[in-house]
Specification:
Layout (H helix, E strand, L loop, with lengths): L4 H23 L9 E7 L10 E4 L2 E11 L7 E7 L10 E5 L7 E5 L12 E4 L4 H30 L5 H25 L5 H18 L1 H20 L2 H23 L4 H7 L1 H23 L2 H4 L22 H4 L1
Parallel strand pairs: 1-7, 2-6, 5-7
Antiparallel strand pairs: 1-4, 2-3, 3-4, 5-6
Helix pairs in contact: 2-3
């Protein structure tokens, strides 16, 4: 029986599509030829983590990110489905966190716990927030280590070539090698886990973040109090206060205007010279009367049945204040 060319093309197309689908799903962590185990991990945020990203243990890939979705309608967490591609046993108390390298795609790292009970299909891993400074250290240290190895290799190569060069070139090579040796020593100091500048800087940054973490409750209280104060200020009827101040200002302006334009008793008192002079005369007369009563008290309190001749001698100006005793 002869098979037509159209049938051959159709069969090849189906096979090619099947291989393409299987290959695509294999790259995403799906394997249709063996039963895989799926576990879950809930994160508050996943950054740029996407489907098919690696899941690693001690740097070795043990699975892929199969799916990501919100845990509920309020998006309180993101649940990551992990498709395990190996039969490795993961302790029940293991912890997962997301690492975001400087170059490359982010991935999930699983830190093994010490439990003798292991994760089963459908179990959920405990998660934690990734320490950004640990990420920096883990990414920078290998790069610096590679640079140091490259410098050492270059030093050995230049040392071998140096034997075949003329004296002037040798001196230049010696200088280059000396600089490379110093650079290698500087890198060694930088990479030192205990005394290196990078280690000290990261330790200081870790101390800063630890202090911020310890002060988290205080910062939360401050933000809450600030929110309460701003809420109370927003609830105040500031327009009414402003209107009252404006009304008081207008009233004060009206009083000042009346005073300046002789409108009312106070304005006339402040601006009328005649009223001022009369008031001064009244006060002077009152002072003279008081002094006359003080100097001649019998003139005002003496009672006579038959009457008594007024002797005159009235005061016409205020008396001396120190003569009251002599008069008595």
């Amino acid at each position: 029986m002869k098979i037509s060319n159209e049938t051959k093309v159709g069969v090849l197309t189906v096979v090619a599509l099947t291989i393409l689908i299987l290959g695509y799903n294999f790259l995403k962590g799906k394997n249709f030829f063996e039963k895989s185990k799926k576990i879950y991990a809930a994160f508050s945020t996943i950054g740029t983590l996407e489907k098919s990203n690696d899941v690693k243990v001690k740097g070795k890939t043990i699975g892929k990110v199969y799916d990501t979705k919100f845990s509920d309608d309020s998006a309180s967490a993101i649940v990551v489905t992990i498709n395990l591609t190996t039969n490795i046993k993961i302790p029940k108390n293991s912890v997962a966190y997301i690492q975001s390298p400087i170059t490359g795609s982010p991935y999930i790292t699983v830190l093994f716990g010490d439990s003798t009970v292991y994760m089963k299909d459908g179990d959920t891993l405990t998660t934690k927030v990734s320490d950004i400074f640990s990420d920096i250290t883990s990414q920078v240290n290998p790069t610096l280590e590679k640079a140091r190895i490259a410098i050492d290799s270059l030093t050995r190569v230049l040392g071998s070539v140096n034997r075949f060069l003329d004296p002037s070139t040798k001196n230049n090579i010696h200088t280059i090698i000396a600089n490379l040796v110093r650079s290698s020593a500087s890198l060694e100091q930088l990479l030192s886990a205990e005394s290196g500048m990078l280690a000290r800087s990261l330790a200081n940054m870790n101390d800063v973040t630890a202090n911020l973490k310890r002060s988290n409750d205080t910062i939360t209280d401050i933000l809450h109090n600030t929110k309460v104060v701003t809420t109370k200020l927003a609830d105040l009827n500031l327009q009414k206060v402003v209107d009252s101040l404006q009304e008081a200002t207008n009233g004060l302006k009206e009083v000042v205007y009346k005073i300046n334009h002789n409108d009312g008793t106070l304005g006339k008192l402040m601006n009328e010279r005649t009223l001022y002079d009369n008031l001064q005369k009244t006060i002077l007369g009152l002072e003279i009367l008081i002094d006359d009563i003080r100097v001649h008290p019998k003139r005002y309190v003496n009672i006579s049945v038959f009457g008594k001749k007024d002797k005159g001698d009235y005061l016409t100006s205020p008396g001396a204040k120190d003569s009251s005793k002599k008069a008595n």
